[in-house]
Design brief:
Blueprint lengths: L4 E13 L11 H9 L4 E13 L27 H21 L9 H5 L7 H7 L11 E4 L2 E4 L2 E8 L12 E3 L11 E3 L12 E9 L2 H18 L4 H20 L3 E12 L2 H5 L10 H5 L6 E2 L4 H7 L14 E4 H5 L17 E4 L6 E4 L3 H6 L17 H14 L3 E6 L5 H10 L6 E3 L21 H15 L8 H20 L7 H18 L9 H8 L25 E5 L9 H19 L5 E5 L3
Parallel strand pairs: 14-16, 14-17, 15-16
Antiparallel strand pairs: 1-2, 1-8, 3-4, 4-5, 5-9, 5-10, 6-7, 8-9, 9-11, 12-13
């Protein structure tokens, strides 16, 4: 930015009440109850503006005894020079490009209508003058009293940081916020966050940086330091001031820093004067605990409130009184800028409802598609990590319920019955059409039918999964099948599928497959002269006999429920009992993978999700 420019960052925090759209038919009872629970919940709404102003050398040195209202014209003649304004607007454009290209923040230039307003709505000037977020309040009288200022029923209170004696010896860009930090992780907030989103009242936090001629400032300080040197014999304070000036000049010249002026203030208001006076004792301030986090001493300023409020009007930064600023460098001045804001709703139609951890306001977040679109992540996988009792399953229930309501196909692998209640809720909501829960009980053991499909469509993945399942039951882990056995089994599966497609009276399950191999396929092998050492049919049937009809595991692959899991959107496999069973666990694992792969291949354009609990 050119010399004699002003950067004014204005953060406005106004209390609003959350108003959900509870009139529309929500996707479910829990979602509607969630919205009703937070209805009328108060929260601080944050709006941030950045004003860039070009002024003149003489105007930047004006004090509070001078005001534009006392002049015949509002704009100085120097600013009316076309070439000067073109250079300034070019610098503004470069400034905007640098900030937007950083990817950390985005600036949107305000139009004339957004500043001044229209017949249909107010602009930012009218909203500032009424201290309202939407400008719905009519313009009201302003009253200036010796003990404060009032706009309508709102009583204003001003605290300033304009004196070096009120500031700490060192400032920083950010700091650790103990409330949300742990011994292993830090929650970092900006240095000025205590007077930003963390200050729980209606307020405006103004941050000014005045860019003067840095070389002229340093030359003036050199001259002042010499005068202090010559006067040091008369006063000890002159010698101390001289040492401070020398230190400032040494830092500026050594590091090549730009000398600027800075000022910050907080304007808070309330309709009840007692609310502002509450907490103020013996000249103290209710802001003291928050400014103490910045290691600053608050100064309750009643005299300069009207002047600083006037200078804070958007576009009127040049009327700032110069005596209210202090000299520093650009880097240190930027430490007083706030960097936090309210959580914003994601624009994506897909996401989940969370709440702002400071105010409790519901926020709609997209943690899948939007991060991918922005390049923050390269995949949509998620890992939920936390100690026992920290709420992992509670959050996961909350997440998968909302994903299911938005059309996602969800397959859950659980240990501990964490999702039984949600599955029952979905089953009742869909009248039994969805919400499938697989678990093992003595009176109702877990059972599947891997051969069943509603449309009799057996693609490559389906055939391979059936083959893999039978191989798992047939061969031990340390007993790899021979090539001839793999070919014979693959042919058996293919011929069986062709048979049940032609004759749909045959019930597809493991029992009918076992009968097919024992009778029909035995003849096929005999006609092809397949030797017993290449494929031992009797040995094959003998190993698989426990899974046939009245065998020990005859229930496992012969479920009579005939569930086609392809079109079921919420499926839970509860493995707490079978996870240590050497027979059941491999079978269930294959069924899980076959189910999800089938969804991945056949359900194009539909969101799918597999979630493994405490793997």
């Amino acid at each position: 930015m050119p010399n004699y420019s002003i950067i004014h960052k204005q953060d406005i925090f106004i209390t609003e009440k959350y108003r959900p759209d509870i009139g529309k038919d929500g996707p479910g009872f829990l979602s509607r109850s969630f919205e009703r629970h937070f209805n009328e919940r108060p929260y601080l709404n944050h709006t941030c503006y950045l004003f860039l102003t070009k002024t003149t050398r003489e105007r930047s040195r004006q004090q509070s005894n001078w005001n534009t209202l006392c002049r015949k014209f509002l704009v100085p003649k120097e600013i009316q020079d076309r070439e000067t304004m073109e250079r300034f607007m070019e610098s503004v454009g470069q400034f905007e490009s640098i900030v937007n290209d950083s990817g950390l923040a985005r600036l949107e230039r305000l139009s004339t209508e957004e500043i001044t307003g229209t017949e249909d709505g107010p602009g930012i000037i009218e909203r500032y003058l009424t201290l309202s977020s939407d400008g719905s309040v009519m313009l009201q009288d302003m009253q200036l009293n010796p003990d404060g200022m009032r706009i309508g029923d709102k009583r204003l209170c001003l605290h300033t940081l304009s004196d070096l004696d009120d500031l700490p010896g060192r400032v920083r860009t950010d700091g650790r916020y103990e409330r949300l930090s742990t011994d292993r992780s830090d929650c970092r907030l900006s240095y000025a966050s205590p007077v930003g989103i963390m200050l729980p009242c209606d307020h405006i936090y103004n941050q000014w940086i005045f860019i003067d001629d840095s070389s002229e400032n340093l030359a003036r300080f050199e001259k002042t330091a010499k005068n202090m040197q010559s006067l040091s014999r008369y006063s000890r304070s002159n010698q101390i001031n001289k040492e401070w000036l020398d230190e400032y000049l040494n830092v500026a010249h050594t590091n090549g820093l730009q000398s600027v002026r800075c000022h910050c203030n907080v304007i808070a208001w309330a309709e009840n004067g007692d609310e502002l006076r509450r907490g103020e004792k013996d000249g103290g301030s209710a802001l003291a605990p928050f400014l103490a986090l910045m290691e600053c001493t608050p100064r309750h300023n009643t005299t300069d409130l009207p002047v600083l409020y006037w200078a804070g009007i958007p576009g009127n930064e040049a009327d700032f009184p110069s005596e209210e600023s202090f000299y520093t460098f650009t880097e240190q001045a930027l430490c007083f800028f706030t960097a936090e804001t309210c959580y914003r709703n994601s624009l994506s139609p897909f996401g989940l409802r969370m709440v702002d951890r400071l105010t409790g306001k519901p926020v709609f977040l997209d943690i899948s598609d939007l991060p991918m679109k922005k390049g923050v992540v390269t995949n949509r996988n998620k890992f939920i990590l936390g100690p026992s009792g920290s709420g992992k399953s509670f959050f996961t229930n909350h997440m998968v319920r909302q994903y299911w309501e938005q059309g996602t196909h969800i397959l859950l692998v659980d240990t501990g019955n964490s999702y039984k209640g949600l599955c029952d809720l979905i089953r009742r909501k869909t009248n039994g059409d969805d919400g499938v829960y697989f678990t093992y009980q003595e009176n109702d053991p877990i059972s599947f039918n891997p051969f069943f499909t509603e449309d009799y469509r057996y693609d490559i993945e389906k055939r391979d999964s059936i083959k893999t399942l039978i191989l798992t039951l047939w061969k031990r882990e340390d007993e790899p099948p021979r090539r001839s056995e793999e070919v014979a089994l693959s042919n058996a599966v293919s011929l069986y599928i062709e048979k049940i497609k032609k004759n749909r009276k045959i019930k597809p399950n493991f029992n009918s497959f076992y009968d097919f191999v024992r009778k029909d396929y035995r003849k096929v092998l005999a006609d092809k002269n397949v030797r017993e050492k290449d494929f031992d049919v009797d040995g094959f049937l003998n190993v698989l006999e426990p899974y046939y009809k009245n065998g020990e595991y005859g229930y496992l692959l012969n479920s009579d429920k005939e569930l086609d899991l392809l079109n079921k959107r919420f499926i839970v496999f509860e493995l707490d009992v079978v996870k240590d069973n050497p027979v059941l666990f491999p079978v269930v694992t294959i069924i899980i993978m076959e189910t999800f792969i089938n969804k991945m291949r056949r359900l194009q354009g539909i969101r799918k999700m597999i979630l493994i609990e405490e793997a």
